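dumping this here before i forget
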Amino acid sequence: MCELFAVNAARPVEVGAYLKDFFSHSKKHKDGWGISWRVDATSADGAAADATDGGEDDTDVFLHREPVPAWTSAYIPALLEGGLSSSQMEAHIRLSTCGQTVRENCHPFYGTDVSGREWTLIHNGILFNEELLATYDLKEVGQTDSERALLFLLDVIDEAAVRSGGILDFPVRFQALSGAVSQISNLNRLNLIIDDGEYTYVHTNTNVDSLHFRQLGEDAIVFSTQPLGGEGEADFWRPVPKNRLIAYKDGRLVRTSTPHGYVFCEAMLDLRRKFGDAWTSVLE
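structure:
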């Protein structure tokens, strides 16, 4: 599977050391990497210039993806040289379960809703039950279930905007997202981090701890698949609460949805390998 990293804070926090540790895991997660941040929320050196590969020319999102192992990238050392501080960031290293090793299949994925708000998404997991995503393979640029999930979520957000008379404030966005994430959690491994430029939304539904957070003071928080920072920081990391959507702003928890019952058991992966497409009937 893939690994995720994200930051949400009221102020730029130095994350270069965490990213160096995170990207070192790419010898296993070798099928590409990517990073995104809000342009006005991050300080980086000149290596970041002219590297955006998603969004429009006037986008507020910096996005860079490469279909190579992160540890082999010539870009990352230049990016991290001199430090990297951010208040909103997502990073991803990919171990593919579907789709070719091309840039279009690397995370983060980018999209806009009907109001023009820019969204990014990173995903760790696999979607066996794609009934709700069935038509999105005709719309996506790449070939991943993760991109299809983002397209579905954006459609849900747009529908919520229509129902609310064009209002897309946080309560409307959160309610729409929490319902949609709950729906696509059924029989799916869904570790997600989503950023809308204002809030960071986090979700995990595995029966083991596969997403963690570390509070960096009252106004800053970081998330990672695996605890980072070595043994000296191990005790500061905590597992993200499972089976619910959680929203953060300025490093603080803002809202938590009602827990759903769709827990993904890792044994399901073994059943899939053993029984193939008939695996769902085996579980019933």
